[in-house]
Amino acid sequence: MSAAAVEYFKVSGGGNDFIALIEPERLPSAGEIAAWCRRGVSLGADGLFVLRRDTAGARMDYFNADGRPAALCINGTRCAARLAFEMGWAGDQLTITTGAGPLRARRSGATAVGLELGPPADPPRELAAQAAGQSYRGHFLEVGVPHFVLLWPESLARAPVAELGPVLRRHAVFGERGANVDFVRFPRPERLEIRTFERGVEAETLACGSGVLAAAATGVALGIARLPLTASTGGGFEMEVEGEAAGGRIVRWSLAGDARILARGTIQADASAAPAAPIWS
Question: 47 - beta bridge partners?
Fold first, then answer.
């Protein structure tokens, strides 16, 4: 299958944008995914997913922008559900099987999808990481993928995401996999603001669903947040975290927000051509 034969959708979940392939003849290679996700010279995206029908409802395989597979992308899964709904695979509810297990999705508005998730297996764990000559204390937890939540007392407009994100993301304290780095502020117990530096994308993204949940779990554990709460993301969208907590632990929860279909087209061969490194490298 040549690149010119690949039909795709471009979708966005709260500002997280993805290339979506519906039941393709084969999985694209890691090199193809990385090339297609490169901004400026190709389609550009935070990641790519492949969506297929199965007996449970649908199955998705998710890949970060660097071409590597990831067990879960919550905003990607919400977009996958929106596509499945629009294609008539289900009514208003659907089970999507991911690398992290089956998740239940539901329509929650004209362009909104909610996703029900199991509670985190472990509570947030306080950790300290050295970067730029300072010690940064935050909380580490897994919400399908690893997150390091930093409580930022000042305006997030001044948070050094581009400077600290790359350093903390690969810090040895998180092991070989590293972690997504979330800069989080709770202006009120029922509201959070968040900016996330995502591994695999290796940049700040306009939204991160698992980051919103990691931040919510941290706030609940510390007693500075309560459910339901609203999260403001860099893309300008708000995401809603609903559920139940007891003793500082999440018992059940869901995440809902914008999930829109932006475009449909065919990937051309030029989209796979990687440019040479700049001469100053």
Answer: 18, 64
pLDDT tens per residue, range 263-273? 999 999 999 98
To which residue do tokens 């998180």 refer? 174
Q: Could you tell me the pTM of the whole model?
A: 0.89
The whole-angstrom separation of Cα 120 and Cα 164 is 26
Choose, from 33, 65, 112, 208, the residue flagged as catalytic.
208
Q: What is the mean pLDDT of each run of 10 residues along the chain (281 residues)?
A: 74 96 95 94 95 93 94 94 95 93 92 92 91 89 93 93 92 89 97 95 93 96 96 94 93 95 95 81 63
Cα-based distances in Å from 278 to 260, 273, 275, 281 = 35, 15, 9, 6
Helices (H), the chain: 30-37, 74-86, 161-169, 209-222
Smallest CA-to-CA distance from 211 within 224, 194, 199 is with: 194
Find the catalytic residue in 73, 129, 215, 217.
73
Q: What is the pLDDT of residues 3-36, one digit of tens each?
A: 457 999 999 999 999 999 999 999 999 999 999 9
Positive/negative CA dihedral, 175, 34, 159, 115: negative
Q: What are the tens digits of pLDDT across the range 39-49?
A: 999 999 999 99
Contact 105, 81 (CB under 8 A): yes
Residue 208 catalytic?
yes
- ∠ CA 84-90-91, nearest 5°, is 120
Give the phi and the psi of residue 244 in degrees, each rounded to 5.
-145, 140
**160: CB partners within 8 A, 6+ apart:** none
Q: Which tokens is 124 given?
A: 């947030």
- Domains (range + CATH), the chain: 3-111+261-272 (3.10.310.10), 125-258 (3.10.310.10)
Cis upstream peptide for 69 (omega within 30°): no
Length of the chain: 281
